[in-house]
């Protein structure tokens, strides 16, 4: 039974074209608070463009509407959207390679710093207390993502999987209301994929987060998401629970083609 909660994120007729290419075509969806919402679709279906529209990287076409936590963010710049509590990890990691893992995490927290650059001159003791408290909080976050032993290692020297975890930690450090995960399973081993699924569920509970996840590993989406929206050629072709989406003929055709047997389809969704 649907809970009829007030949606944290709402899009109405969200569209984006690039010249003659309609990348996103009148996509409307709602994401309820404290849920995990999956966004899937074949390559080129518009998933990354959709994320770029939500976060202000791209400006949508006329007639589109996006609201977050009751605020119209349709035409707001990326930094203003982030300040409202919408954070994102990127498929292509954007870390500061020369900075330590801990310093990268601190960068995520920086917008929440209460004092300006001259504060240490006038409120030295107070600033030091805040810095100490923030550092301890960020060290706890590093421990949560499994990088406590790598706190002082430059990000460039971490493995690919560790850098992906660090990017996740930096996004959490922003203290978002909603977290957008862009292909968090990319490059992970099967064992680490299982760990990722557990991490997503723990994030939701520990930080009271609402999460939207774009992921090509369907097992991750089917195992963690409350609701899944499916894009194909920029249009939303299906939406519902994992069980509903898994058996929707439109989804099956988009991914695998009509000739696939039902048991093969289910195996692909569960793999």
Shape: globular
Average of per-residue pLDDT values: 85
CATH arch. level architecture of the largest domain: 3-Layer(aba) Sandwich
Number of domains: 2
Q: How does this model look, in words?
A:
The structure is a single chain. The protein has a six-stranded mixed β-sheet, with helices on both faces. The chain has a four-stranded antiparallel β-sheet with strand order 2-1-4-5, with helices on one face. The protein is globular. The model is unreliable at 117-122 (pLDDT under 50). The protein has eleven helices and ten strands. The chain has 271 residues and is an alpha/beta fold. Strand 9 and strand 10 (235-240) form a beta hairpin. The protein folds into two domains: 1-85 and 176-241, 3-Layer(aba) Sandwich (Rossmann fold); 95-175, no CATH class.
Task: Summarize this entry quickly.
The chain has 271 residues and is an alpha/beta fold. The chain has 11 helices and 10 strands. Helix 3 (101-109) crosses helix 5 and helix 7 runs parallel beside helix 8 (218-224).
Topology diagram in text:
Layout: E1 9-18, E2 21-31, E3 36-40, H1 47-54, E4 65-68, E5 71-72, H2 78-83, E6 86-88, H3 101-109, H4 119-122, H5 124-144, H6 160-173, E7 178-182, H7 190-206, E8 210-214, H8 218-224, E9 227-232, E10 235-240, H9 242-247, H10 249-256, H11 262-270
Helix pairs in contact: 3-5, 3-6, 7-8
Considering the chains and any ligands shown, give keywords for the structure:
271 residues, six-stranded mixed beta sheet, alpha/beta, single chain, four-stranded antiparallel beta sheet, Rossmann fold, 11 helices, 2 domains
């Amino acid at each position: 039974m649907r809970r009829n909660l007030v949606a944290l994120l709402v899009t109405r007729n969200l569209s984006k074209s690039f010249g003659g290419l309609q990348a996103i075509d009148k996509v409307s969806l709602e994401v309820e608070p404290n849920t995990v919402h999956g966004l899937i679709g074949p390559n080129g279906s518009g998933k990354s463009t959709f994320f770029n529209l939500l976060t202000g990287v791209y400006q949508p076409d006329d007639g589109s509407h996006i609201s977050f936590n009751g605020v119209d963010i349709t035409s707001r710049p990326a930094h203003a959207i982030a300040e409202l509590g919408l954070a994102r990890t990127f498929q292509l990691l954007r870390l500061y390679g020369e900075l330590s893992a801990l310093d990268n995490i601190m960068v995520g927290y920086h917008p929440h710093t209460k004092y300006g650059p001259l504060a240490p001159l006038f409120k030295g003791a107070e600033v030091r207390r805040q810095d100490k408290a923030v550092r301890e909080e960020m060290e706890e976050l590093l421990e949560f993502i499994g990088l406590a032993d790598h706190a002082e290692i430059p990000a460039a020297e971490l493995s690919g999987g560790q850098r992906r975890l660090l990017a996740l930690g930096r996004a959490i450090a922003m203290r978002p209301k909603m977290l957008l995960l862009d292909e968090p399973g990319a490059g992970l081993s099967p064992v680490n994929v299982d760990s990722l699924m557990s991490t997503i569920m723990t994030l939701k509970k520990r930080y009271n987060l609402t999460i939207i996840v774009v992921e090509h590993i369907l097992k991750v989406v089917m195992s963690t998401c409350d609701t899944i929206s499916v894009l194909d050629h920029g249009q939303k072709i299906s939406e519902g629970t994992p069980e509903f989406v898994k058996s929707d003929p439109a989804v099956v055709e988009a991914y695998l083609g009509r000739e696939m047997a039902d048991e093969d389809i289910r195996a692909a969704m569960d793999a």
